[in-house]
C-alpha cells in the first residue's frame, strides 16, 4: 500500500507539471502560475560529465519559446521553493546569483514569496512577486514586478537566466543587496526654502534627492530610525547605463533606497534651498520626457532652486556623466580669450574641416564661415573654429581652465547630496581637440553646466548647494582664480549674442533682461540622435538642461531651460 500511495503521489505532482509545460508550449498560452509548482530541474538534475559535455554539440541560434519558458520556470520554481542552489544553477552566473538569492531570505527577511510569471516577450519574461517581510515583531506585505531574460550561456549554448541583481528587484544594480532591519539613518522631513514639506509624491523628481538627504543628514537632523527594507548600494553600483550597473571613475555615489517601511521612525527636519514654485515648474517641463533633466541656480550664491529629471530612477541632473557637446565651448572660449587666441570681433577661421591628431573634424552639415569673426563662430557653434587652435595649446590647458576658473573636475563639491562634479581629463592629440568642443573624455551634467553659466553671470565660481553650509559647518569648494574683467566681458558678449542671434535665439525668444546662452549636441556611440544640451542665464539665475537622444540642444533642451527662466519672473 505504501509503495502504491507513493507512486500515486508522484503521478499527481511532477508528471502533471511537465504536462502543463508542454501544453503551454504547444498551445502558445500565457506563461502563468504553473511556475509556482514543482518540477523545475536542479543543479544535480542537469549535471553532466566533462567527457559527455565535450562530446555534445554546442547549442546556438535563437532561443526557442520552449527554451525560454522552461528556463524561466526552472529558475522561478526553485527560487520559490527555497532551492537557492537550483535557482542559481539556472542562471549564467551561479556564484553571484546564489549570494543574492541567499540574502533575499537571510538579509532581506523575505518570507512566503510567490512568483507568478507573465507572458514572455521574446527572451524576456516578466513576473510578479508577492511576499511578506518580517523583522522581529514588525511585518509588512511586499509586492512588486520584475523581469528576467533568457540567453545562451557562453561555452555550451545552454539557455540560462541572464543574471543581474535587477532580476531579484528592479531597484537593484549589480553589486547592491537587499537588507531589512533598523534603518541606519533616521527619516528626514525635508523642507523647501519657505518651510513647506518636500515629498516624492508632490515632486516625483526628488525621490533620489530625498534618499541622498537622508543618507547625509538622517543622523544629524534629530530623528529616530524605523524598520525598513532597503536597497543597499555596493561598490560597483552606478547609474546602470551599461546594463551592468558600472560607474565611471569619479562619478558620485548613489544613495541607498528605502523600498518598504515596516515601522515608521521619527523624522528630523532639514531645510533646503529649493523654491517650491520653481520646482513645480521644473517638474512640469520634464514630465513625460524620460531623457530630460534640468537644474536652476541662483548665480550669485550657488543655491539650487530647482532640479528635475524626466526619468525618476536616477538623478541625471546631479549624477549624470555625459559629454556636454558645444556647451563646453563656454569654458574653451574663456581660455582662448585669455590666451589671445581669439577676440570677439576679430576674424577667426571657421573652415568646413580641420584635421588634428589624425582625426578629421567637421561642422554640423559641413558649413563654413568665410571671413567671419569669433563671435559669429561662437554663435553658430562652429567646431573647427575651436579645434583649429589645438596646435597652439598644451595638453592640460583646458583641464587647468576648468578647474581654476570654473571649479570643475576637482571632485570636491559638497552640495548636500551626492554629485558628479564634472570631468575634464588631460588628453593629447585628437582627443584633446575633441575635448575643446565637449567631446573626447569631457563629462558633465546639468548641475555642472548650470554652474558654468552662473560663473559667467556672477563673475566668479560659487559652488552649487542644496543644503546651506551653515547647517553642518561644511566648507564649500572654491576656484583658485577668476577671469579678468576684459575676458569676462567678452564671454558675456558672446553668450548674449548667441541668445539673441545665434543657435539659442529661437529658444530664448521672449526671455527678457540680461541674458546669455549656449547650445550643444553631443554624439554618443550607439545612439541614433545626439544628446541635446542648453545652458543659459537671466539676471541672477542660471540654468542648464539635457535631453538624451533629443537631437539639437536649441530644439530640445533649450525650450525647457528657457521656460524655467521665464517662470522665475
TrEMBL record:
Keywords from the named record: Membrane, Transmembrane, Transmembrane helix
Residue span, Penicillin-binding protein transpeptidase domain: 293-565
Stretches for region Disordered: 217-255
Biased amino acid composition, Basic and acidic residues: 230-247
Record Gene3D superfamilies: DD-peptidase/beta-lactamase superfamily
Record keyword Cytoplasm present: no
Domain of life: Bacteria
Matches recorded under SUPFAM superfamilies: beta-lactamase/transpeptidase-like
One Pfam assignment: Transpeptidase
Protein name: Penicillin-binding transpeptidase domain-containing protein
Organism: Streptomyces lienomycini
Amino acid at each position: 500500500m505504501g509503495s502504491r500511495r507513493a507512486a500515486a503521489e508522484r503521478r499527481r505532482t511532477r508528471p502533471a507539471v511537465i504536462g502543463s509545460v508542454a501544453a503551454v508550449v504547444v498551445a502558445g498560452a500565457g506563461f502563468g502560475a504553473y511556475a509556482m509548482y514543482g518540477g523545475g530541474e536542479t543543479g544535480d538534475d542537469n549535471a553532466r560529465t566533462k567527457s559527455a559535455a565535450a562530446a555534445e554539440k554546442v547549442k546556438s541560434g535563437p532561443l526557442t519559446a520552449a527554451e525560454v519558458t522552461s528556463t524561466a520556470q526552472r529558475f522561478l520554481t526553485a527560487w520559490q521553493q527555497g532551492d537557492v542552489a537550483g535557482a542559481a544553477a539556472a542562471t549564467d552566473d551561479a556564484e553571484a546569483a546564489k549570494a543574492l538569492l541567499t540574502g533575499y531570505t537571510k538579509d532581506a527577511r523575505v518570507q512566503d514569496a510567490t512568483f507568478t510569471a507573465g507572458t514572455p516577450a521574446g527572451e524576456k519574461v516578466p513576473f510578479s512577486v508577492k511576499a511578506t517581510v518580517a523583522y522581529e515583531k514588525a511585518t509588512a506585505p511586499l509586492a512588486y514586478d520584475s523581469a528576467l531574460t533568457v540567453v545562451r550561456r557562453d561555452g555550451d549554448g545552454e539557455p540560462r537566466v541572464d543574471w543581474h541583481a535587477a532580476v531579484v528587484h528592479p531597484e537593484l544594480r549589480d553589486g547592491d543587496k537587499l537588507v531589512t532591519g533598523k534603518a541606519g539613518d533616521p527619516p528626514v522631513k525635508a523642507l523647501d526654502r519657505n518651510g513647506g514639506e518636500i515629498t516624492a509624491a508632490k515632486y516625483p523628481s526628488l525621490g533620489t534627492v530625498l534618499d541622498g538627504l537622508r543618507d547625509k543628514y538622517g543622523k544629524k537632523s534629530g530623528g529616530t530610525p524605523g524598520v525598513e527594507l532597503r536597497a543597499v548600494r555596493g561598490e560597483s553600483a552606478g547609474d546602470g547605463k551599461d546594463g551592468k550597473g558600472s560607474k565611471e571613475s569619479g562619478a558620485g555615489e548613489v544613495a541607498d533606497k528605502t523600498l518598504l517601511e515596516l515601522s515608521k521612525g521619527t523624522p528630523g527636519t532639514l531645510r533646503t534651498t529649493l523654491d517650491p514654485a520653481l520646482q513645480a515648474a521644473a517638474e512640469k517641463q520634464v514630465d513625460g520626457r524620460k531623457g530630460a533633466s534640468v537644474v536652476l541656480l541662483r548665480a550669485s550664491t550657488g543655491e539650487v532652486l530647482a532640479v528635475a529629471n524626466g526619468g525618476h530612477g536616477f538623478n541625471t541632473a546631479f549624477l549624470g556623466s555625459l559629454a556636454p557637446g558645444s556647451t563646453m565651448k563656454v569654458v574653451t572660449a574663456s581660455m582662448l580669450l585669455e590666451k589671445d587666441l581669439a577676440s570677439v570681433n576679430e576674424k577667426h577661421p571657421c573652415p568646413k574641416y580641420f584635421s588634428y591628431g589624425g582625426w578629421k573634424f567637421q561642422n554640423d552639415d559641413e558649413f563654413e564661415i568665410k571671413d567671419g569673426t569669433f563671435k559669429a563662430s561662437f554663435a553658430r557653434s562652429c567646431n573647427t573654429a575651436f579645434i583649429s587652435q589645438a596646435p597652439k595649446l598644451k595638453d592640460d590647458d583646458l583641464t587647468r581652465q576648468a578647474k581654476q576658473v570654473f571649479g570643475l573636475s576637482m571632485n570636491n563639491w559638497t552640495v548636500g547630496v551626492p554629485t558628479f562634479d564634472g570631468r575634464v581629463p588631460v588628453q593629447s592629440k585628437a582627443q584633446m581637440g575633441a575635448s575643446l568642443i565637449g567631446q573626447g573624455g569631457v563629462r558633465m551634467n546639468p548641475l555642472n553646466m548650470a554652474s558654468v553659466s552662473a560663473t559667467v553671470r556672477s563673475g566668479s565660481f560659487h559652488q552649487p548647494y542644496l543644503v546651506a553650509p551653515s547647517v553642518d559647518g561644511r566648507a564649500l569648494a572654491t576656484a583658485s582664480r577668476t577671469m579678468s574683467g576684459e575676458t569676462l566681458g567678452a564671454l558675456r558678449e558672446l553668450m548674449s549674442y548667441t541668445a539673441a542671434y545665434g543657435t539659442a535665439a529661437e529658444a530664448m525668444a521672449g526671455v527678457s533682461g540680461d541674458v546669455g546662452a549656449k547650445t550643444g549636441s553631443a554624439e554618443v556611440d550607439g545612439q541614433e540622435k545626439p544628446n541635446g544640451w542648453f545652458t543659459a542665464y537671466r539676471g541672477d539665475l542660471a540654468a542648464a538642461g539635457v535631453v538624451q537622444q533629443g537631437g539639437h540642444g536649441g530644439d530640445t533642451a533649450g525650450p525647457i531651460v528657457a521656460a524655467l527662466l521665464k517662470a522665475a519672473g
